[in-house]
Amino acid sequence: MESLLKDFELKNKERSIEALSRWRSYVSLVKNRRRRFRNVADLEKRTQTQEHIQKLQGKIRSVIIAQQAALHFTDAIGTTEYKVSEKTREAGFGIEPDDIASVVRSHDYKNYRKIGEVEGIISKLSVSVEEGVSQDSIHSRQEIYGLNRYPEKPSKSLLMFVWDALHDLTLIILMVCAIVSIGIGLPTEGWPKGVYDGLGIILSVFLVVIVTAISDYQQSLQFRDLDKEKKKIFVQVTRDGKRQKISIYDLVVGDIVHLATGDQVPADGVYISGYSLLIDESSLSGESEPVNIDKQRPFLLSGTKVQDGQGKMVVTTVGMRTEWGKLMETLNEGGEDETPLQVKLHGVATIIGKIGLTFAVLTFVVLTIRFLVEKGVNGDFGSWSSNDALKLLDYFAIAVTIIVVAIPEGLPLAVTLSLAFAMKKLMNDRALVRHLSACETMGSASCICTDKTGTLTTNHMVVNKIWICEKTMEMKGNESADKLKTEISEEVLSILLQAIFQNTSSEVVKGKDGNKTILGTPTESALLEFGLLSGGDFDAQRKTCEVLMVEPFNSSRKKMSVLVELPDGGGVRAFCKGASEIVLKMCDKIIDSNGTAVDLPEELANKVSDVINGFASEALRTLCLAVKDINENQGEKSIPDNGYTLIAIVGIKDPVRPGVREAVQTCLAAGITVRMVTGDNINTARAIAKECGILTEDGVAIEGPAFRDLSPEQMKDVIPRIQVMARSLPLDKHTLVTNLRNMFGEVVAVTGDGTNDAPALHESDIGLAMGIAGTEVAKENADVIIMDDNFTTIVNVAKWGRAIYINIQKFVQFQLTVNVVALVINFVSACITGSAPLTAVQLLWVNLIMDTLGALALATEPPNDGLMERLPVGRTTSFITKPMWRNIFGQSLYQLIVLAILNFDGKRLLGLTGSDATIMLNTLIFNSFVFCQVFNEINSREIERINIFRGMFDSWIFFTVIFSTVVFQVIIVEFLGTFASTVPLNWQFWLLSVVIGAVSMPIAAILKCIPVEKDTTKHHDGYEALPSGPELA
């Protein structure tokens, strides 16, 4: 089968339009194109979108270039006269929405200066930088300047899904056959007998359409909820004098927005203040070179990303008046890429469909030839009646129904159903799946490269120890802070608090209740909390000095520096904090107990290194705080890289999350290697990794610089044993991921939270961004967002990924068994007896059982713990495995033997006589066939294990589908015989039908004891494949 599916292979990521269109060209048999291709990308619209984006980017580029060129001739360019309408003036604003939008969008420096630059804009928008927008003015701002929302594609109603389901070509043909049957039956057999056959088909088609539409509609609701969750982005703003977090959709013109590295610019605006603000405009302009934003180049466009630095902006344009808004309107059209498993099952459906079509044509040809031969033998060839026409029409309807059953369009749609169900459940479990394929691929993950901070640890940090003035002190609340004041001099405490409060990107704000809240990263929050406990006043400290320059922290520099001007002409001072080893190398002095800077001899520097390693070995994150006074006579003011004075070493405790150790052990048992990749000190990383159970005795802990220096041959030897990488750069993570995938064929999942993690997230098979600590850039490059930043949630995603894969395998096994039996029994019976035992209505009911209802039952089963006791599925593993083929052929053979005996010798064996013997036998065959499928559905819950009942009652959907199928089967046989060509059965025949179905259970157990060729390959970390067959019972 795999050799036939080579045209239906698709990469997990980076698929071109050519690759996506190639497999579509091989799908030749499609019953309902609208439904079959509903959940795949619309390539035509996507191409149009790309062309539109390129035009838009060209337009933006030309505007920016033209305005930059015009800067040299600003005096020669005329300015625009801006008129303000009465409505805008009454609302308290001094500029029209289209006018301010035009200035920012077109980078109109001339009119920007005429307005009065940023101060003028702030004034015209009736806002202050310190207070921000007042809550009372939000409604009027939205009324004048609009909402920050983009048009969304309207959701489809249930009736639209009914309409889609009615586009099934085979169902349309059957309805035409039904109408013709009624047209012929009424004049020949009269009312009501003449309409029974046709009406039966119409009612069956109606039932299939309604059940299919409801199932599809439910899926669409789940995807809609998921889309809403995906679009949730929050920004920090100042409102009513307080800094707060709001949704970008609640943003209004005039809002003062705080931007930090990794944020998405939420609306068009103008720069107010900031440091080293670097903006990536490639999403709008197509230019890869980032742009420095400052007072000279102040325009910020919605949808661009903050690559580095921090700043404040005032919002000038929102929603559809921005270029990003127009772009978002177009981006909604393309749809999401199909997943590799969906494509593979499109291939399976196409191959089986071709086989089914051949059987259907042969069945019709054989039935027709037999009918014509019989007429010729009986000498009736010259005379034709309406009964003959009805018989031929019935043969044609049976052939068409065989095609309905034979083309398993439910296969690729079952993947969508399973993914929709899993994604909804994962959303409730705090994991947001951004790309459908990630959910599927995560089940094959063989390696997880995880961050430490916030993922393995709680991210609730507190200063636990401090080394200052050559003394180590343990910090435990207010008492420890009081002790610190007695142990060190006021001068030392003053410089320590200055280093904490001046060199930070976080803020201390007062809430409505008067309590202080720290806004910022957990590490900085821990430092600020320590400073406040030690008697520091954040606002007072910040007001005393003027910040001249800031070098924000990022994962490459691993430090943050700031240059401030001291009050009363006290000179310029630089503060630096960051990774202890890095900052220590920049120091040549140390603060003594009197607060004086003295030389730092090598012996003392070695002692400081020992303190750092001592803190780190206790699983503390260490930070080094340093200061340097700069002589103004040196000329240009810049942040120095050396000559600092060491103030203190701080040890910050970040406890390991509860349940992480157990989650890591679950991964190891499942053949998933867990690797910690962190920017922390090697000793801190080792201690945490041991506590989590990641670092084992034969595992390797390596530092980023040492990893970078390895040759390709050394990497081949070392990478399989790497369990911890410390002091790593984002480039190291990217290199590790690339080599794991290319050298060892691993399916790699990677966690990331920073902007610089984007390349590794993009390169990996599954990118996992952190929902709390993660930047918008990281989230945009990720496939799954872990909303609680918890490693246990990642393991849950892997478990659901495996459940999706195995659920689809169960459904495929079940559907192929029904296909084989339905095709063969009808074809063989047609060839030998000249009639098919299963009528069109009966086959439609069987199709409903095996397609929509079968998918609902088997494709939505929740994961069990046993899934994490087997090796992950390899990249090249065949989807339809040998145990599946064994089960399919074994069950098909049993069903065919039983049904063939009933079909060809049933009357004699059961003692059936009289005029209704044939219809009684055919009803028994139909009933037995349906019960075989009901019990085989239960058998299909486990492909290799004998115990098929485990967890069956945990899945209420499965239980409901089985119960509903049995109830409706009773109704069809006992009460709808007129339409379904059945007669009521006595209790003995009902018992016989159930027994025939139930016997498939012991047969399934026997089949699972038959050995099939097992995969004997080992995981490169030494994990062996678990046994299959009866040993798994």
What do these coordinates show?
The chain is α+β, with helices and mostly antiparallel strands. Helices cover 51% and strands 15% of the residues. It has 38 helices and 26 strands. Strands 10, 11, 14, 15, 16, 17, 18, 19 and 20 form a 9-stranded mixed beta sheet that branches. The protein has an 8-stranded mixed beta sheet with strand order 8-26-25-24-9-21-23-22, with helices on both faces. α14 (340-377) packs antiparallel against α16 (410-428), α16 runs parallel beside α32 (840-858) and α33 packs antiparallel against α34. The longest helix has 43 residues, at 791-833. It is elongated. It starts with 16 loop residues before the first helix and ends in a 24-residue tail after the last helix. Mean pLDDT is 83; it is low at 1015-1033.
Q: Which radius of gyration do the C-alpha atoms yield?
A: 36 Å
First and last CA, distance: 28 Å
In one word, what is the shape?
Answer: elongated
Strand content: 5-15%
Helix content: 40-55%
| Count of extended strands | 26
What is the residue-mean pLDDT, rounded to a whole number? Answer: 83
Q: How many strands, what sense, and barrel or not for the largest sheet?
A: 9 strands, mixed
Tell me the structural class: alpha+beta
What's this entry about, in short?
This protein has 1033 residues and is α+β, with helices and mostly antiparallel strands. Helix content is 51%, strand content 15%. Strands 10, 11, 14, 15, 16, 17, 18, 19 and 20 form a nine-stranded mixed β-sheet that branches. Strands 8-26-25-24-9-21-23-22 form an eight-stranded mixed β-sheet, with helices on both faces.
